[in-house]
């Protein structure tokens, strides 16, 4: 029988500006010169301002005679107020380029400062994701932003996303637009050597969840509605063949190197690989998106009570982002595996599960058990209860997840309020 094969072609558009830098961060000041920068805004946080990554950048700026002003008031886990403070600094400064040296908190704050300085009459909520903000598309041209990540986690140097804690609603949300992607990301693992153990662990869990969530997200061709104008295309488009490559590659690196990077600060091979994995996963999820672990993490961070994590040199309580996403991961993947179980099983195998005799219908449970073991081995807090939550908090946690449609709608399996309650309840204790 002759059967005509019909091959469906899809169009993929993809962009990211990353450079591999052989001469460490020092050459980045030449990039600033090439960009014609005359007045640079350098952003970082107070803790980092005393550490080697910022020193290296200051030396480089001095060596190349770059005129700059430093803003080191970035809040670790930024809020609307801390974003606004940085925006005011940027609006007053009249800068023609930005350099962000830090983790996701710094890079995200710098993205927001660049955006609102370029759009001086905008109100803060104009660009914030709907339904919390107005979600206006960005049409103004932004100044160049060079991102120098110092954690191995968010991949923010590759993404068009800036996340903050919206205090009034006690929930995290953000700004999402390709227009706010950094112009250049400098991936230099030497900057990560000063990271203490728990920051390596928590930022590494963010990489783990970026990879797992983007690989299991709703496929791009099942996402709706289709925007009538390309400017309204969401930054997060659903899993697709291109982001799959980045997600799987990042997951393999996490499986091989995360434990080593956490346990031994001298293990440069592990730290270097994790720094790359962070960017790889960033390119993957920055295009495909994340889903329930992230959607549910926003109220987990936003409703923080008195939790003060070890190794975070800050004076306020916070749930580090990576911890807030990973604590629900066993429950989430046990729930989502009904759809595309083969992807869940593949992920479990990459993370070390023996799947030779596994049944496909057990994929979710196998991945959940693999994750639990992974977290137990790394001394991770025993679930949401260990960071201060109880059953009584579940309604508020669910309420804070409901507006996170930008990500929760990318879950391969739709979820009701009851499902979310059950997921939070199952995440109270892990072991
Ligand atoms: N934009 C995105 O695509 C994206 C993605 C995921 C998460 N995020 C956001 O990023 C933030 C979290 O960022 P993060 O996990 O990178 O951490 P972070 O920027 O919040 O920093 C955490 C702590 O690590 C310290 N630190 C950073 N680098 C260090 C180094 N090299 N040596 C010693 N200390 C160091 C900081 O001073 C801080 O105390 C959250 O707000 C999260 O929501 C953004
Ligand atoms: Fe994240």
Automatic annotation (TrEMBL):
* SUPFAM superfamilies on file: Dehydroquinate synthase-like
Q: Which domain of life is it from?
A: Eukaryota
- The yes or no answer to whether the keyword Zinc is present is no
What range(s) does the Alcohol dehydrogenase iron-type/glycerol dehydrogenase GldA domain occupy? 30-189
Q: Which reaction does it catalyse?
A: 4-hydroxybutanoate + 2-oxoglutarate = (R)-2-hydroxyglutarate + succinate semialdehyde; (S)-3-hydroxybutanoate + 2-oxoglutarate = (R)-2-hydroxyglutarate + acetoacetate
Kindly give the Pfam families that the UniProt entry links to this protein: ADH_Fe_C, Fe-ADH
User: Boundaries of each Fe-containing alcohol dehydrogenase-like C-terminal domain copy?
Assistant: 238-428
According to its UniProt record, the EC number is 1.1.99.24
Chief location bin: mitochondrion
Output the Gene Ontology terms for molecular function. Answer: alcohol dehydrogenase (NAD+) activity; hydroxyacid-oxoacid transhydrogenase activity; metal ion binding
Record-level GO cellular component terms: mitochondrion
Q: What is this protein called?
A: Hydroxyacid-oxoacid transhydrogenase, mitochondrial
Q: Which organism is it from?
A: Zosterops lateralis melanops
């Amino acid at each position: 029988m002759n059967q005509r094969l019909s091959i469906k072609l899809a169009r993929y558009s993809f962009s990211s500006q990353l450079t591999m830098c052989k001469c460490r961060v020092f050459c980045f000041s030449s990039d600033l010169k090439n960009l014609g920068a005359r007045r640079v805004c350098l952003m970082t946080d107070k803790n980092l301002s005393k550490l080697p990554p910022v020193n290296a950048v200051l030396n480089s700026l001095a060596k190349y005679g770059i005129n700059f002003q430093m803003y080191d008031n970035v809040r670790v886990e930024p809020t609307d107020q801390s974003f606004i403070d940085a925006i005011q600094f940027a609006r007053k400064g009249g800068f023609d380029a930005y350099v962000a040296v830090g983790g996701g908190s710094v890079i995200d704050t710098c993205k927001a400062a660049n955006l609102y300085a370029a759009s001086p009459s905008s109100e803060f909520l104009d660009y914030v994701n709907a339904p919390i903000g107005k979600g206006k598309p960005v049409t103004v041209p932004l100044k160049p932003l060079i991102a120098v990540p110092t954690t191995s986690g968010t991949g923010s140097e590759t993404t068009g996303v800036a996340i903050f804690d919206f205090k009034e609603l006690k929930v995290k949300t953000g700004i999402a637009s390709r227009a706010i992607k950094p112009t250049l990301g400098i991936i230099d693992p030497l900057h990560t050597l000063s990271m203490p153990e728990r920051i390596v662990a928590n930022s590494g869990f963010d990489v783990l969840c970026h990879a797992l969530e983007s690989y299991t997200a709703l496929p791009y061709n099942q996402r709706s509605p289709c925007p009538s104008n390309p400017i309204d295309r969401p930054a997060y488009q659903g899993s697709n063949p291109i982001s799959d490559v980045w997600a799987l590659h990042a997951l393999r690196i996490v499986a091989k190197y995360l434990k080593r990077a956490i346990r031994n600060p001298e293990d440069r091979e592990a730290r270097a690989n994790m720094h790359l994995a962070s960017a790889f996963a960033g390119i993957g999820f920055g295009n495909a998106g994340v889903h329930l672990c992230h959607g549910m993490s926003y109220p987990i961070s936003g409703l923080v009570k008195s939790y003060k994590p070890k190794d975070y040199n800050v004076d306020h309580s916070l749930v580090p982002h990576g911890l807030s996403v990973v604590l629900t991961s066993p429950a989430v993947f046990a729930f989502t595996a009904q759809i595309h179980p083969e992807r869940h099983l593949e992920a479990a195998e990459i993370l070390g599960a023996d799947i030779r005799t596994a049944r496909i219908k057990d994929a979710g449970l196998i991945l959940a058990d693999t994750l639990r073991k992974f977290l137990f081995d790394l001394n991770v807090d025993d679930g949401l209860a260990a960071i201060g939550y109880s059953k009584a908090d579940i309604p508020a946690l669910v309420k804070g997840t409901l507006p996170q449609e930008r990500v929760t709608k990318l879950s391969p399996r739709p979820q009701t309020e009851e499902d979310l309650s059950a997921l939070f309840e199952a995440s109270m204790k892990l072991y």
